[in-house]
Design brief:
Elements (H helix, E strand, L loop, with lengths): L2 H4 L3 H32 L2 H25 L3 E4 L13 E5 L6 H6 L5 E5 L10 H6 L3 E2 L3 H13 L3 E4 L18 H8 L3 E8 L18 E11 L5 H16 L2
Parallel strand pairs: 1-7, 2-5, 2-6, 3-4, 3-5
Antiparallel strand pairs: 6-7
Helix pairs in contact: 2-3, 6-7, 7-8
């Protein structure tokens, strides 16, 4: 355990977690107020680039602070090379915790996520997500079309094929969509395996509950799958691959 955490009791760790979450919330609020103004001032392409890069850097800073105080230990070095790769790419990962998207996006300045439509109106997330041209999920047809367009513009589309945090080990049944997007955009799917030794912020873990010790995450690159005409078969192949990797 980190020496700082070792000197803190349960109440101290809870206070530290609240401080981190409060800092993240305030930073998100400030950025979204700025993003609201930038939406009106910047052309779409410039806003998109700035919005995505700012979100990536903001989360990278948050993880650096969380690691510095000993709450987290994150090894995402394997993803560093992805940011420099040109062209569109789907980044597909398993989904053990609420933090997964934040962990991956922190490594991808061109990263784009699919979000619940209701979050686009959230004061802490909405303006920044709109500036970055994140994709709404309220219309499946529109969502797929927007995803294909973003990939054509060179985005790194972050997707979780399980659709929600894992409740059935090793992975939930995969939802259709990811391989159809890959087939229509003609881009590969780069798999990312997220390993963690903690149930922290899994499906049944409330956000205010403090982890008992330092939470460890390792993000490693898996196989890269080319798009296929038979996208339903590729979805089954992808699910089987994740299941094997997570039970090794």
């Amino acid at each position: 355990m980190n020496p700082l955490l070792a000197t803190l009791g349960g109440m101290g760790r809870s206070a530290l977690l609240c401080f981190l979450l409060l800092g993240l919330g305030l930073a998100s609020l400030v950025w979204n107020l700025a993003a609201l103004a930038l939406l009106a001032l910047l052309p779409e392409a410039a806003g998109r680039r700035l919005g995505r890069a700012a979100i990536a850097r903001g989360y990278a800073l948050f993880w650096a602070v969380a690691q510095g105080v000993g709450m987290m230990r994150i090894d995402s070095r394997a993803l560093r090379g992805l940011a420099a790769q040109p062209g569109g790419l789907i980044v597909a990962a398993n989904h053990p915790s609420m933090l997964d998207a934040l962990l991956i996006v922190a490594c991808l300045p061109r990263g784009v996520c699919i979000m619940k439509a209701s979050l686009m109106r959230n004061v802490f997330l909405g303006a920044g997500a709109r500036l970055a041209r994140y994709i709404r999920n309220d219309s499946p047809h529109g969502m797929i079309g927007d995803a294909v367009q973003s990939l054509g513009e060179g985005a790194h589309l972050v997707l979780f094929p399980e659709g929600t945090r894992t409740v059935r080990k090793p992975v939930n049944a995969f939802l259709p969509g990811i391989t159809l997007i890959a087939q229509r955009a003609q881009v590969p799917i780069q798999t990312v395996i997220i390993d963690t030794d903690s149930p922290y912020l899994g499906k049944s873990w409330p956000i205010w509950r403090t982890p008992p010790a330092t939470v460890k995450f390792t993000l490693r690159l898996g196989e890269r799958f080319a798009p296929q005409a038979d996208h339903a078969q590729l979805l089954r192949t992808l699910e089987g691959y994740f299941a094997r990797e997570l039970t090794r």
